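Researcher: Following up on the earlier apo prediction. This time include the ligand. It's 2-oxoglutaric acid, with the SMILES given after the sequence.
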Amino acid sequence: MEILMSNWSKVVKSVPENYIFPPDKRPGKHVFPVVNDVPVIDLENAQGQNRADIIQQILSASQEFGFFQTKLSYGDKPTRYREVVGEYSVEARKFLLRMLDLISEGLGLKPGYFNGELSKIQLLSVNHHIPCPNPSLTLGMPEHTDPNLITMLHQCSVPGLQVFHKGQWMNVDPTTDSLIVIPGLQLKVISNGKFCSPIHRVMTHSEESRTTIGTFLIPSNDVVIEPAKDYAADDPVYRGFTYKEFFSTFTGSNCVAETALGCFKNNTK
Ligand SMILES: O=C(O)CCC(=O)C(=O)O
Ligand SMILES: [Fe+2]
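Model: Understood. Below is the ligand-bound prediction.
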């Protein structure tokens, strides 16, 4: 009989060979430190008196760290999956557009700069990783940088997310009452390098399965991405490109961000 993937971990006692990562990409048995300085930004009063302060916190977090967290607040819980996912997606989009408004204000861009084509496409991705007999040999998700504009990550209580921070891999605490915001590579380009887009990966867990929800805002294929004119007029680090052009270069560079971005850099004097 076929073994359901969800029951796999009860039956499979060692990591199948085709899941084992090459030695230099494996996490090994290293004990990773917890990154305990992921900035937490409270969006309470972002429409009021705390706005300037919140924007400043977002800019500093994105320049110095990459990730940041915001506290989560839930509405009612509808019972049907389609409704739940529909409502979740609408709320996730509102949240990310609100975040982008704060970011555009912080970069000195006009309100609504990221609305429209730059954030046209929304992707919801649910990751479910079953327990793994030997987490040292493999990864739930290999190291990568999100190629889109901005990502909202909703973790569960099982650890797994790691960020490459201060020259080493570090665990991100699995908080269920806050959301992780990850600036994507397009935000790095539009902000002319002011925002960094952090490298991250996902470890597996030996006993528990892990489910996370990612919401990605993605530019439409033909929109031109470039350092914002009113922001980086004199010294744009990157030339303009369409998202389609970027994405094919990115996948053609084995999804290595620096290689892909290198193809769009202006010559420096
Ligand atoms: O599941 C996670 O914690 C991270 C997922 C992720 O990085 C992604 O989907 O791009
Ligand atoms: Fe990611």
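Model: The first strand starts at residue 34 and ends at 35.
Researcher: Noted. I'll compare it with the apo version next.
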